[in-house]
Amino acid sequence: MRRPKILTTLKTYDRNQFVADLIAGTTVAMVALPLSLAIAIASGADPATGLVTAIVAGFLISALGGSRVQIGGPTGAFIVVVFGVIANHGYDGLVIATFMAGFIMLVAGYFRAGNLISFVPEAVVNGFTIGIAIIIATSQLKDFLGLAVENVPADFLEKIPALWAARESLSLSALLIAVLGVGLIVVLRRVAPRVPGLIVAVAICSALVIFLGLPVDTIGSRFGALPNTLPAPHIPDLSWARIVELFPSAVVIAFLAGVESLLSAMVADRMIAGQHRPNAELTAQGVANIGSALFGGLPATGAIARTATNIRAGGKTPVAGLIHAAVILLVLLLAAPLAGYLAMPALAALLMVTAWNMSEPHKWSEYAQGRNSDKFLLLLTMVLTVLVDLTVAIGVGVAIGLAMRLNRRKSVESDWTEPDR
After folding, report:
1. Which of 43, 284, 354, 413 could form an SS bridge with 64, CB 3.0 to 4.6 Å?
2. Taking every annotated instance into account, which residue ranges of this chain make up the domain SLC26A/SulP transporter (predicted)?
3. Residue 48 has what pLDDT?
């Protein structure tokens, strides 16, 4: 079924639900604001593209999606892919790949491919998620430590030596702000879980940088002022050669967006005892990525952390997601210059915490006690993600995982006997 969930929920919508959605949507927007900026920067894109993606894609995912409470936007899982596409094909190449990925997901939704998520081995998902978390964390070491490195290599095996070579340029001010940011995020999450701790922590750290005059980079000092309007939509400059060149990247974006959005929707189902519509969700992801590309944004998908925040804040229907997008748009229109004061080490701290949470350390003991085949698959996918390429990691992981699953199903013993000749 591809019918958007919002059509079902609005039939019985009332004032109490709107108040709950208003509070939840505003809360999620305060979480999504700094995250969207940080994810865009870590991806090698302009910070404003993160806000554009959260507004356009976030609105479309909630308006057309198959989940009551899913919140969409740019996510940490895309940092690796986006960084690689921009490095190899330019930002215009990323926009084209995102545009194409949207159509791939529309086709997948039309043919009801949402149900195929069950065939992706869980160990593969866990492996590439931990691998992405490692890459995100290492990508933030430069700003976390305030290292003076002109261009940090994208390759993991080249990045670590480059960062180590610049160790003497470590900035104590940047490190203290980053450590304070991590501490505030962790403490606020435990002491006041309903407070949007991410933006509060980043704001406090950034205020300290400004008032104490610390020699620490900010968004403004590195990227200049953020625009206070949405860009005009335009169709990417497509050519046959460009389509062929970027098709593999589009497939990876579509696969990752589909898997993460459906996983997020399944997590949400468990939290609210609900039932999402996987093919409607895939269709919504397709439209959202097309929309994001038209406005020059990043790839988008359902965000597990923001969806969980929405549920905990009392979100009841997709209207909360629409409000989340509207609030970010208001901030962009009215307060964009303030984002220029946000300190880079504070945003690095935010992504460090995000990477730690992505790796789900509370599940590590469960992984260690699992089947040897699952542990092997997880480690293989993780290592390939970090050292080789996400595309290779997913392809190899899924192929080996399905082979293992088929092998385990050969439980019926053959009654064949050698004929008497």
Report:
1. 284
2. 18-379
3. 93
Residues 6+ apart with CB under 8 A from 131: 381, 382, 383, 384, 385, 386, 390, 393
pLDDT of residue 344: 93
Chain centroid offset of residue 104 CA = 19
- Which pLDDT tens digit goes with each residue over 29-67? 988 998 899 899 989 999 999 999 999 999 999 999 999
Phi-psi region of 216 (alpha: psi -120 to 50; beta: other; left: phi over 0): beta
Q: What are phi and psi of 201, to 5 degrees?
A: -65, -45
Q: Is residue 413 part of a domain?
A: no
Of residues 314 and 153, the one with the higher pLDDT is 314
144: domain range?
13-405
Residue identified by tokens 């997709």 is: 318
pLDDT tens-digit map of 74-96: 988 788 889 989 999 999 999 99
Q: Quick check: is 271 in a domain? A: yes
According to the model, what pLDDT value does residue 82 have? 92
How far apart CA 314 and CA 324 sit, in angstroms, is 13
Among the listed residues 154, 79, 81, 114, the one whose alpha carbon sits nearest the alpha carbon of residue 277: 114
Query: Do residues 132 and 260 make contact, with C-beta atoms less than 8 angstroms apart?
Result: no
Within-domain flag for 235: yes
User: In the chain, how many domains are there?
Assistant: 1
Rounded distance between C-alpha atoms, residue 50 and residue 33, angstroms? 9
pTM: 0.83
| CA atoms within a 13 Å half-sphere pointing along the CA-CB vector of 298 | 39
Confidence of residue 420 (pLDDT cuts 50, 70, 90): very low
> Hunting for tokens 């949470």 — which residue is that?
357
Q: Is there a domain that residue 421 lies in? A: no
pLDDT of residue 414: 45
